[in-house]
Structures are given as structure tokens and as C-alpha cells.
Write a structure and sequence with these properties.
Layout lengths: L2 H7 L6 H9 L3 E3 L2 E2 L11 E6 L2 E7 L8 H4 L3 E8 L2 H17 L1
Antiparallel strand pairs: 1-2, 1-3, 3-4, 4-5
Helix pairs in contact: 1-2
Length: about 100
């Protein structure tokens, strides 16, 4: 299943368009690699999502098409969840800008 759809089905994010935008802006990583919205996710993958000043890291337990809310929680387990300091975001942004300058 695509990562943008998985985040919606698992009810981690409310809308698929939001998860698609996060992936397009390099805010979603699977197993340490930045991915596009169309990247397939499978059981055992570790997904890191950065939105706003929060970061959520989950482990995918199942990638089934679940329709009921109570079953959605069984699709993943939370590894870590926390806030990102402003300093960390600024440093990451500066690193990205300098990388783009070299291209």
C-alpha cells in the first residue's frame, strides 16, 4: 500500500492529501530514507513523520485496507513521539539549503 494512503487508513493523518504533501516536502522517511507519496509500505517498516514541530516514529505491523476505526490502531505501533526544537529545524533547513546550492 502507498505510504500516503497508509497514513490515512491507519488514521495517523486525517486526509490523504496532507500525507501526500508531507511526502512531497521530504517529511516522511521509511527505514531512514526520504520517500515519495507512492512508496509502498509493508509490515516491519519503520516510518518517521515530521509535521509542524512534532515527530512521530512508528513501526508498521500490517498494511491492510482497514475500514473501521477500532481496527486502525492495530496497523502500527508507536516507537517514539516528541517535539522538535526550533534550533534543530533551522539547522536541518540550512543543511538542505546548502545542499541545493551545490546542485
Amino acid at each position: 500500500m502507498r505510504i500516503d494512503k497508509y497514513l490515512k487508513v491507519a488514521r495517523i493523518l486525517k486526509r490523504r492529501t496532507i500525507s501526500k504533501e508531507l511526502a512531497e516536502n521530504d517529511r516522511i522517511e521509511i527505514n531512514g530514507r526520504v520517500v515519495k507519496p507512492s512508496h509502498d509500505v509493508k509490515a516491519g517498516d519503520e516510518v518517521s513523520i515530521t509535521f509542524g514541530n512534532r515527530q512521530l516514529k512508528i513501526r508498521v505491523l500490517s498494511a491492510e485496507d482497514v475500514k473501521r476505526r477500532k481496527d486502525a490502531a492495530d496497523l502500527y505501533e508507536v516507537i517514539s513521539e516528541g517535539s522538535i526544537s526550533t534550533e534543530t529545524r533551522v539547522t536541518a533547513s540550512l543543511n538542505e539549503d546548502s545542499k541545493n546550492d551545490r546542485l
